[in-house]
């Protein structure tokens, strides 16, 4: 009887997987896709498909493809291997979707322009390029609640700080009980920086940093740094940014 029950269960699972994977991707998109996701020229199935163009949270992508990973169903998650091409660069990741709606990205590798994110981070004129290498990122209700990996920015332009390029910076992300934290430092930036970023589950974030001019720091930026207050004995100014995602 136990063997028969197992065979019936296995058969039911195979049937469900078969029905699911044959489901047309275009129909699934029309039924289930949130308003923040727009796909065009969809082909294939939920199992294995692609879209010629896509917009996800304002980020434009080309040649978006997905490949279903059925074994993840036994862990209670729906999983896909996803690849896409932004305006420049690339995105590769394994995407897991849990029953609670949380999205987990594993083995995330990406190279992206920063411009599409200027609205979401509240910084008009944001420019530069970012490279990401993360073992995992977990997003719940649009907020990162776990992240382990590295983010490197090159040729950063952040008009709230300075209108010209301020060079390159790197952030290493870790997951703690309080949320996602990161240590931030310059690589070839025109300003020496040592800072920390905290992102809480309630969407609030706080960035604290100590800034110091270098020999390559433009005079105009040196003058702007004085508006941050009085420098300490090491010539460092404190920068504090707070807000909500």
Main pleated-sheet profile: 13 strands, antiparallel
Q: Assign an overall shape.
A: elongated
Q: Kindly state the mean pLDDT as a whole number?
A: 81
Number of helices: 3
Task: Please give the share of residues in helix.
Answer: 10-25%
Q: Give the number of DSSP strands.
A: 13
Strand and helix order: HHEEEEEEEEEEEEHE
Task: Tell me the radius of gyration.
Answer: 22 Å
Task: Give the low-confidence spans.
Answer: none
Query: How much of the polypeptide forms β-strand, as a percent range?
Result: over 45%
Question: Distance N terminus to C terminus?
Answer: 55 Å
Structural category is mainly beta
Strand sequence of the main sheet, in spatial order? 1-2-3-4-5-6-7-8-9-10-11-12-13
Description:
- This protein is mainly beta and 245 residues long.
- Helices cover 14% and strands 53% of the residues.
- It is built from 3 helices and 13 strands, in the order H-H-E-E-E-E-E-E-E-E-E-E-E-E-H-E.
- The chain has a 13-stranded antiparallel sheet.
- A hairpin with a 4-residue loop joins strand 10 and strand 11.
- The mean pLDDT is 81.
